[in-house]
Amino acid sequence: MPDCSTPRPVVSPAVRDLLRLANLDEFDRHRSRLDRLGGCTHPVQLMGHTVTLDSATGEVLRSYDTATDEPTGRLLIACGNRRASRCPACSRIYAADTYYLIRSGLTGGKTVPDTVRTHPRVFATLTAPSFGPVHNRPGLRPCRCGVHHAETDPALGTPLNPVTYDYCGAILFNAHAGVLWDRFTRNLRREIAALAGIPQKALPGVLRLSFAKVAEYQKRGAVHFHAVIRLDGPDGHDQSPPAWATVPLLTDAIHAAASRVLLVVESDAIGSRELNWGTQMDVREITSPGPDTPLTDAAVAGYVAKYATKGAEDSGTIDRPLYCAPCQGRGAILTPRGDHTECPHCIGTGLAEPPESLRVQDHVRQLIRTCWQLGQLPDFAHLNLWRWTHMLGYRGHFSSKSRRYSTTLGALRGARRTWAVDKARARAGASALDDTAADTVSHWQYLGSGYSPGEELLAASVRRERAAALRLKREGDAP
Length: 479
Description:
RepSA, Replication initiation protein, globular, 11 helices, 4-stranded antiparallel β-sheet
């Protein structure tokens, strides 16, 4: 019989690494650092040092070196990814920052005066045009196919006739959506000046157009924009607009400006395409909170923040680049002798994964295939569609704002960073440094991303604790 008293070796690499970490002299300190990452999925690993010197005397005020000050010899920092599909923990922080950025431009705060509440402001949605009929849920009526689709029916958003669906037009619209938005804002200023009866050149002296927008994918894979649009005085949110700047005037100007946007794309391969906004447009006034006002400041800010962490994956596509990283989608690599040879990773295709192998719907697969094929044409080389194939051609920022709408994401991150540094120095019992009298010399090297197997177990426990805390909070807030 086998000796049951003999300890069995630990087979699991994760458990074996966890035991290694638990035997570190400063395990508790390392565990607390992992806790402060908040369950980040892919933290960045850094190695290096930083030294803070007195500017006058050269005395070392503070020094830090990962080789001696970190139990594992490296520093882990949160990845900061905005996508919920890539890192739920960091995306929650991004969503919170976006929420306060949007809301401060509606109610004040974060250097914005609360008088901004009185400015004309609307919530506008600009959609893509039709590229062919698709399965949908038109109210009480059945779809054109004769079926009442359920809300979770995977057929929603797919073409009724894939053969006649304008896939090229859909991809080119996504690729030029940012240009269409820019033309819309230019037209909007012209329309406001025309409705006000003043010269267009005189408009900046009496009024400023401020906005913040977020992109969202429809089920059919087309991008549309949700935007908060506000009218300010010439200096921005600190000034009220003129009395003639009203919500009805802004609403009429938005409809007129969007209807006049037209972009013609010429190509020898696919002919000419006219790109414009769709006829389905929604413009609603943002009002103060009340029992009969569903579109309030907080509701709009929460709506925008929710979509700021989403991407094309919500339309059924993938959330990772499709091109081959070693050859950068070219299909060939440069040899040490300066010659080009077929990339062994993608076998000359330039694709990390062929579209046929992706676990997506046929409609999405055809959008991906069309985007990649258009990216290979010389006429569209400037669009770099091969790089944005996983985004179905959309190349713009998912959330953006005008200069004077409100605060910035950088300012919010800076304030949070300063708060974290002050808290860390307080825990260590160190006094605050006078930045004007100190110089900092640093050197950092990127090592990789992710956790070791044992650290992943600890991070997973942090995620479970955070998820449980959020669930209890929601249950407590529920009526």
